[in-house]
Amino acid sequence: KDPAAQNAAGPALVLITPSPVGVNDFLKLAVQGIEDSAKKHNGTQKVFQSTDPASIQQNLAAAVREKPAVIVAVGFNFADAIAAEAERNPEQKFLFVDSCTTKPFPNVTCAVFREHEGTYLAGAEAGLLSKTGKVGAVVVLDAPQFHRYSIPFGKGAEKAKPGTTLAPLFIGGANPFNDPARAKALATTLAGQGVDHVMGAASAAGNLGVFEAAKQGGFFAFGVDANQCPASPGQVVDNVIKRTNVVIGDGVEAILGGKTGETKSYGVKEKGISLTGLEPDAATSQCVVASHPDVLAKVGELRDQIISGAIVVDDPAES
Amino acid sequence: MTRVRLIAVPVVAALVLGAILLLATGTDPLAAYGAILSGAFGPDGIGDTLAYAVPVAGMATALAIPLRAGMVNLGGEGQLVLGAISALAVGLYVPGPGLVKVVLALLAGTLAGAAYAALAAVCENRLGVPLLISTLLLSYPAMSLAGYLVRFPVKDAGSSLPQSPQLPEGARLPELDGVTTGIFLVVAVIAVYAVIDARTPAGFETKVTGWAPRFAIYAGIDRPKLTVRLLAVSGGTAGLVGAIAVLGFPYRFIDGALITPQYTWIGLLAALLAGASPLGTLLAAVFFAALTSGGFAMERATQVPRELTAVLQAVLIIFLAATSGVFKRKARRA
Amino acid sequence: MTPPNPDAVSLRGIVKRFPGVLANDHVDLDVGAGEIHALMGENGAGKSTLMSVLYGLHRPDEGTISLHGKEVSFGSPAQAIDAGVGMVQQGFALFGGLTVTENVVFGSEPTRRGLLDRKAATARVTELIERHELRLRPGDRVRDLPVGLRQRVEILKLLYREAAVLILDEPTAVLTPPETERLFGVLRTLAGEGRTILLVSHKLQEVLAVSDHVTVLRDGRVSARGRTADQTAAGLAAAMTGREVDLDRVHPAGSPGAAVLEARSLTVPGVEGKPLLDNVSLTVRAGEIVGVAGVAGNGQAELSGAITGLLKTGGEIVLKGQSIDGPSVRARRDAGLAHVPEDRAEVGSAPTASLRENLAVGFHRKRPLVRKGFLRRKAVDDHASAIIEAYDVRGAGPTAAMGTLSGGNQQKAIFGRELTHSAPFLLVEQPTRGVDVGAIENIHARLVAHRDAGHAVLLISAELSEILALSDRVLVLFEGRIVAEFTKDEADPHTVGLAMAGGAG
Amino acid sequence: MIDASLFSSALTALTPILFAALAGALCQRAGVFNISLEGSLLVGCFGAVAGSWYTGSAWIGVVVAVIAATAYSLILAIGSITFDGDPIVLGVASNLLAVGLTSFLIRTVFGTEGSFSDPTLRGLGQFGPIPGQSLLVYLSWLAVPALAVLLYRHPWGLRLRGVGERPEAASSLGVDVTKYRYGVILAGGALCGLGGAQLALGSVTLFAENMTAGRGWIAVVAVMLGRAHPLGVLLAALLFGLAEAFGFRLQGIGLPQQATDAAPYVVTLVALFLSNFKRKKGQPA
Ligand SMILES: Nc1ncnc2c1ncn2[C@@H]1O[C@H](COP(=O)(O)OP(=O)(O)OP(=O)(O)O)[C@@H](O)[C@H]1O
Ligand SMILES: Nc1ncnc2c1ncn2[C@@H]1O[C@H](COP(=O)(O)OP(=O)(O)OP(=O)(O)O)[C@@H](O)[C@H]1O
Ligand SMILES: [Mg+2]
Ligand SMILES: [Mg+2]
Prior knowledge:
The complex is a heterotetramer.
Chain A: H1 3-7, E1 12-17, H2 25-40, E2 44-49, H3 53-66, E3 70-74, H4 79-88, E4 94-97, E5 108-113, H5 115-129, E6 134-139, H6 144-147, H7 151-160, E7 165-170, H8 180-192, E8 197-201, H9 203-217, E9 220-225, E10 236-242, H10 244-256, E11 263-266, E12 273-275, H11 293-308
Parallel strand pairs in A: 1-2, 1-3, 3-4, 4-5, 5-11, 6-7, 6-8, 8-9, 9-10
Antiparallel strand pairs in A: 10-12
Chain B: H1 2-24, H2 29-41, H3 45-67, H4 76-93, H5 98-127, H6 131-151, E1 175-176, E2 179-180, H7 182-199, H8 201-211, H9 213-218, H10 223-247, H11 263-273, H12 278-302, H13 307-323
Antiparallel strand pairs in B: 1-2
Chain D: H1 4-29, H2 37-55, H3 58-82, H4 87-109, E1 115-116, H5 135-153, H6 155-165, H7 167-172, H8 177-203, E2 207-208, H9 215-225, H10 230-252, H11 257-260, H12 263-282
Helix pairs in contact in D: 1-2, 1-5, 1-8, 1-9, 1-10, 2-3, 2-4, 2-8, 2-9, 3-4, 3-8, 5-6, 5-8, 9-10, 10-12
């Protein structure tokens, strides 16, 4: 139907998202990644957006029926469905980003992130900047996967300034991934307890609630996935960025090159995870941390220690 | 003939309205509708439709049962989830051969849902909290409890997500072409409901209560007892649907996975639409399931937002409510 | 043609059709100022419809309405009210949750700075109450008032609106003789002030006693009219029904046998300490009709609830030697109780369901309707046809919705269903409320036949004449207690009426 | 555990619920069972954001929210009054419609999905002495006595209650039942519009799919708990808001979120039990 797609000679790629892309930075980067890959290999690309476990399964099955060169799935919600489809369709290649199947499959390539390393660095910034010695986190759900955004934040802060404490709060409720008002209320609650730096891992919409609380309460927040500083300039200190686009590009390239079945972990060292402030374009990022070169210098040291292995950040999801 | 017209007019009206929406967004309505149809009933789509229809029809039937007596159970989500988590716990922890486990798990799910819904009935009978409110309010703690369980005592050791471990190989309901064999259980429940509704004193008493509650009490039907019974059956059916869901792919309980697809609300709508009649409820449920799976297919094929089908669905019901007598509260008396 | 002194109300050629029914068929009606005009007719003759047309609730399909010689046309009651027409509808139009004052001013409230002026409202209502000696308290909640007082609230509403034309649709259906007397006193005073009163009633004696003129409708057409002084009860009854009706039939006494129902010390607590039913004991024997007389609201509903099990009560009830004071409604019915309730539409039937289904209720767990646990369609059909035939229930057949039957036919169906149980004990409440003379005759005959078949019957009725015509024994209920008991011979309207008013306590 | 921010966050949490619950109470008084509050709120949220975005004025956003939610409530009004449809069917259907329609519109109008926001999107801003509260918060508090006066001190209120108790009687006294019922449903829609505007432009400044997250259902419960009296409804909403804010505190002392999530519902249920228990004791049979 799409004439460009008909003419393209290269591989067909399908990206499946677990929820609508919209303003979700993580998924936007994934879409960017698949588009870049398609362009690079002169292929075609499609995006199937899911809304719930049932539609994830449907979309995955529909993708398999199209027999593309690579099916890319982002998000931990795909684990069971990919395992089932990979088993049933050994010829089909999958790139699974952000999580992995429990059992390895020769046709499933996994790319996972070590977000906790980035969170740790962000926590260090918070510790250095905090006046109250209390930092907090507003996180979607109280589950180990999401603790990667809370516990290491406290650890980093404690490392940077001993004695700093962490207060995490979780959104939960009827609609944890889309309840900005509740995210804001939680952030405000933290501020009421003396917290002045809040890590926001409250979903795309939820983080905006956290930032607004920060603006109103005069405290600071941290974003995730991409540079969220422009959403609330002056309030967002820094972001734990996840280079999903790069990771997808790498993964697709590897699969097209014939390498499949691996699991690759991306952390600070592999440049899959970083902080906006540590990137070359930090100065134009509108992030608060850009005006604290001393803090950035110290955090840069910590990053190097993580890269060298001198510091190992515990993964809360492993516990 | 008039019945056909009663349904046909709203359907056409909804389709026309949908077509206007589509034209407004610059899409060919015929292509979009074609994609919905083939996505819902085509060789690739029918499986999706059935897979979706199992929980929706199951929940629709669960909620239709008390609705027949004029009782609205708004707590289907909690009962569904509680049934699922109970079935899962049995499947995981009760020793024994696979088949026994499956049967016990289904039973446990049914019982858990039944007991919980009956509790809401007791709240109405003993504490004067209307059923509508007691079922709704009790639903949330059940969902929280299940979330808590898979987060702590029943968590999947290998995963960092709020989900349970997978059930062992033997303790699963097999799939046929992507559709759980639980479909037979759901069909059986609907068949039993249809027979009880049409042919037994119990079904008759339920209907009498639905027609005229005070008349039913006058005639010797014990309303509190009936409420408990109907809610137990309703919750039990919801629990069974939950059990079928966890015993099927992906063979585990994932926090929120039974809630986000809106099985319960769409089921309730189907039941309300059909006036809780057993076969009508089934038809409406399958229709909604087809619209949903067709919607996703349409989006994949034409990039028209799948929400269009949600809009069509709701508009259709509203037109139905407005133009036909199916939802009339009371026939007017002389 | 135009009379020099135009009538206060003049209806000309009124036609009103409902789907399938010609309710009013070219009806003419003239009523002078200061006149009490009675409107009579069988159930469904079109009385309420005609009055509703005058009150703006229905628009006539044909015909004209004139008030004091001026033609008017009402699209809504609001317009009729503005033109000075007021109506007390059959079965009241009161709000139980509101006070007397609120009910009275409802729809034309006095205001001050945009808000309700409660003071002015109360003052005006109090003044009207005093002037017409209505003995109401403006602040009382209407739901706490007995029926007789509610009736007065309705009258008060008309007075408050300064209605020149007062329509009362069967106002005495629920009143006792003394209350009726009081009401008529008020009506006469109002007529004396020059107001026009239209009174709809089935009760011949009342009409003869209070009205100046009378019009009889039959099948939507005027079948008789004239000065009341020129009419006789038998003549009016014949005009209504088109046949001779035996009006004053007092049925012969039965021959009571063994006690079937024994109730001892039935008590229902009230809100403020005063019990609604206070230590009531009674016995009903086989082959006996025991009538419970009393002004509505003196514990009748509670007595019925206590016996049927619809209300939880203190005390003991023994049915055929078996204690039933614990068991449920169903157990009591299984033990031998049948019941014709007061409220036919909501309690006695399911209006939206078919006649067939309505008739199956109560038989739906028993043979022959059920066999091997399943309801048999054929048996259900046969059962319905049998009752329809035996009790002459007229309508569109067994599949017609109960609610589409006329009131009289609904009553026949319910009677048929309950009598078909052949239960040892039958409780009947207000069997002929709102039922026309022809139907009354029929219902009474059936009750007596039921008694003569050896069944025990407890009859609760606010209609004293009905109690006297049927009962072998009469109990009088006053303020929750049985204050007097009479044998058939002792019972006469005067003494029983006195007891009903508390004069025997 | 208890400090000013507890009340502040309770206040923020309860405002949309309060608006919706007042809408529900008004409808209930007129004998209309309104369970489409959730959908009305959501439509209000969307209208507010769309209005603010296209005009650059948050207050025009509020007006658009009110218009949108009022228009949306026409579904219930026309369906249940003019066509005598079952209000529960219409409520459930229109709630689903609100979710579908706003998700559809966010894609077709804003060209995005999931949520829409922009740094230049105008919010309501703070007003008055209490930090973090918009003018609408105060308005919601004012609405309580205003509605109480309307219901119990104004002729309309008297007629409205009459319509709720016995529509046929009210109509025979010249009160246009249809007009009153339309009036309360549409007014309820307007109130929900204000609630949605507060949620989407007051609490936060964005629209997210299904962002009402069950607040409309809580409002339905609050109507019940508050016995459809404006003051009672306020207390019920306050109770819920406090219980939720308190639940956040419990997380702070280490309870898992899954446990504290249930807190407001359990508290509400207990409150319902207690209030009914008292009533039962005071009023036998
Ligand atoms: N709203 C209506 N719709 C259809 N038919 C009606 C309506 N109101 C009255 N009828 C029919 O019109 C006829 C006249 O009814 P109406 O109520 O005027 O009788 P009535 O003389 O007042 O009887 P009753 O003594 O039972 O009160 C009846 O056949 C009745 O069923
Ligand atoms: N609202 C209505 N809708 C449809 N049909 C009606 C309605 N009201 C009455 N009818 C029908 O109109 C017919 C006449 O009713 P009506 O009330 O006049 O009966 P009736 O002959 O007076 O009987 P009865 O003496 O038992 O009241 C009945 O057969 C009834 O089924
Ligand atoms: Mg009649
Ligand atoms: Mg009448």
